[in-house]
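>> received
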Amino acid sequence: MVDIISKIDELLEKPCYLIDIFPYTVPETADRRYFRVEEYFQKNRKEWNEKFCRLLLKLYCYYDFWCSCGEELAENPEPDVFAQWIRHCFEGDWKERDYINIILPACNAMVILNGDDLYISVYNPDRQLMELISQLAGAEGFFFYKVRGEQA
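>> returned
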């Protein structure tokens, strides 16, 4: 396995897409209602968490994964271990939640799940990965869209 930290740093500079609960970035309003809605979802996120876990496990069936979760590094972890790492991201209050970086070496892409967020970031996806993620995200009630960078 290559130096996973260097690879993460490299991919963070690439185009970024989101797997999100909203179909596109919510515009700011004077009453800042989005933040109140986000707070509600953060307090009631068990269903969202399970959907994120299912989506990532399904994606894992199609690609090799190099995973970094806290101090843990693994190439193609066992599914139950991978699911534990995903669920660990959501444990505790917002100050204690963790994240997982997943590199997909076959297409030089990366997926980041941060337990504080109501979305998953996807860096540098190729067309095939974008199509698959769109289908998997839609099946779980999520949306997939570009937030920055050049077209993949």
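>> The CA atoms of residues 35 and 58 lie 30 Å apart.
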